[in-house]
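User
Class, as today's exercise, I want you to study this protein, comparing sequence with structure tokens, and judge whether sequence predicts the tokens.
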Amino acid sequence: MARMAVRNICLVEDDPAIFESLTMLLERHRMRVTRYETAEAFLAQARPDDFDCLLLDHQLPAMTGLELLENLRARHIDVPAIVMTGSPDGMLARRAARAGSVVFLHKPMKFKELLAAIDTAALPH
């Protein structure tokens, strides 16, 4: 039986508790998680193509997760992305879809829902 490759996940999340819990759960499912606390830190330090999927919290200080995604798309960086928010709204979901978010998740989400979203996002495009 073939082993599933480790997926490299980038989590842009400013809440340490959410980061810790998501990291622990994702690592149990053979995922390597790299965290950035802000969109600006991600832009300054990350190499987006090193990741199989971006998990972007929408509610970040200064630049939002959706603004980060729009910034990446404007630079023709097409790494798969999932936008997560605790404040769901239809207009935000449509904007995320236009920016190329593979999935738009509402917090709190079920872990199986997150895993399914990552599976969908990380498929070869």
